[in-house]
Amino acid sequence: VIPTPSSYPAPRSAKTALTAAMTTCISVNGTLGDEKSATISVLDRGFLYGDSVYEVLRTYGGEPFALKEHLDRLERSAELLEIALPISRDTLVEEIRACMAAAGNVESYVRIIITRGGGPISLDPALATDPNRVIIVTPLKTLDAEVYETGVKVCLVNAGRSAEGQLPAGAKSGNYLTNLLALRVAKQAGAHEALLVDAHGRICEGSSSNVFIVVRGAKAEGETQGLTIRTPPLEVGILEGITRHKVLELAQTLGYPVEEVDLGPDDLRAAQEVFLTSTIREVLAVTQVDETTIGDGRPGPVAQALRRAFVA
Ligand code: PDD
Q1: Which of 48, 151, 187, 211 has the smallest set of CB atoms within 10 Å of its CB?
Q2: Ligand 1 in reach of 211 Cβ (< 6 A)
Q3: What is the pLDDT of residues 244-276, one digit of tens each?
Q4: For ligand 1, atom 9, which residue shows the shortest CA distance?
Q5: Rg of the Cα trace of the chain?
Q6: Is the pTM of this model over 0.70?
Q7: Residue with the nearest Cα to atom 8 of ligand 1?
Q8: 209 lines ligand 1 (CB under 6 A)
């Protein structure tokens, strides 16, 4: 059925509608299962040490968004940890699509995990030679529309030491303890997200997002309203967010100068706007940093314009 304006969205049968809204499908080394049947050994190093890499992507219109970029990053992360990908990219894509088809959701959250595998219990990575792969497809949960109207609170959390010089900096590894403990602190303070601050006092990123600010700058020709967008550089050891990259491109298209520079807590508090980017959040305005209100306490025009452009 080709949807016409009057028939769109095409009606689905009750059964399709039910499965469409409900199904989680998990592929373990190419075998499809569900939450109960999909299992992996407790000797897997992903379980023992977080010795794994992963990606999270989502669909729009049922199609994985930025699949190539996510698989590129997965390969980079695996390279940084020296985990050999067990199958070709084409096979991985086939498995992702098979898992999505079996789940049959209208929109999906897709998590791809590659672990170094199992073997004798030992820290020595050389003892694990058989990586495991898991693909989890589950119905996509997005944020309530309301949070995009109100903006969110974030908390600054000291992450202790700098990511600089750490081997896996920039890799999306399964080891997220720092991030999840920071998020717990933020949630206890009633915030939506934690922003990690390193030992040098530099703002790095959110527990699962990248961060941007908007500042007033000198108005040069062609610039939009004299506003400049700033975000921490990759060198501080952050994840190179795929949404971050797209938003940097969109910002330039919209005429905003963009600077990747070190930012401190005072830069955030004094900013006209602060916003987060991530696969699930897209572009989300921050209206409060700890107890400081940002701007007039409502999502600002730049975050809103970038969100519109991103969604478009
Ligand atoms: N997290 N920084 C960190 C530490 C992240 O974990 C994420 C994403 C991002 C944003 O990256 P992207 O725009 O590519 O989603 C930045 C995913 C969504 C997660 O772990 O659920």
Answers
A1: 187
A2: no
A3: 999 999 999 999 999 999 999 999 999 999 999
A4: 209
A5: 21
A6: yes
A7: 208
A8: yes
